[in-house]
Amino acid sequence: MKLLAWRQAYSGFRDEEFFAYHEAQLEQQLAWWERGLAGGAQFWIAESGDGKIIGLAGGTPTIEEDQDTGVDIELGVLYVLEEYYGCGLGAHLMDTVLGKREALVWVLAGNQRAVAFYSKHGFAPDGTSEELVGSWAGLREVRMVRRHG
After folding, report:
1. What is the pLDDT of residues 114-146, one digit of tens each?
2. Is residue 80 a contact partner of residue 54, using CB atoms and an 8 Å limit?
3. Ordered DSSP codes for 109-148
4. How does pLDDT run across 27-67, given as a tens digit for each residue?
5. DSSP for residue 62
6. What 3-state DSSP class applies to 74?
7. Among residues 83, 85, 136, 148, which one has the fewest Cβ atoms lying within 10 Å of its Cβ?
């Protein structure tokens, strides 16, 4: 499901070779999920009535490099299949992970749909960004933080 959601969300940013590469790396993806769970991450999966996975979300404790935000949780994963955009599933998954807590999320620069979604839910860019590496090289992520008060 995650790779299909990537195709739907990032096809304007990456070519077919990128997606084929990641589809061939399923064992490494499994290891990524296992490391996350072992490190304190929590993940939730949304299913349709017929049992098809249609969304997923997860939160992790804030890593050392993001401690300057003063928040203790990162929304590390939030994906919903395109056919479910706009129905409230993404907001529900995000609330399941974060509740109303202060939090941070890293968003692909130029992903206006994601930036608008997170802005609607109280997140704002805090001026921190990073250039991506590996198969994501040439792209940049922007950190968005949700604060109260």
Report:
1. 999 999 999 999 999 999 999 999 999 999 999
2. yes
3. TT-HHHHHHHHHTTEEEEEEEEE--GGGTT-EEEEEEE--
4. 777 787 788 788 777 889 999 999 999 999 999 899 999 99
5. P
6. strand
7. 148
**Whole-model pTM?**
0.89
Short-list 126, 129, 122, 66, CA closest to 99: 122
Give the SS3 label for residue 70.
coil
Q: Over the range 3-24, which residues count as b (16 or more CB within 10 Å of their CB) and which as e?
A: eebbbebeeeebeeebbeebee
Quick one: how far is CA 148 from the chain centroid? 21
Edge-to-edge strand list for the sheet holding 53-61: 42-47, 53-61, 73-80, 103-108, 140-146, 123-131
What is the residue whose two structure tokens read 């206006």? 112
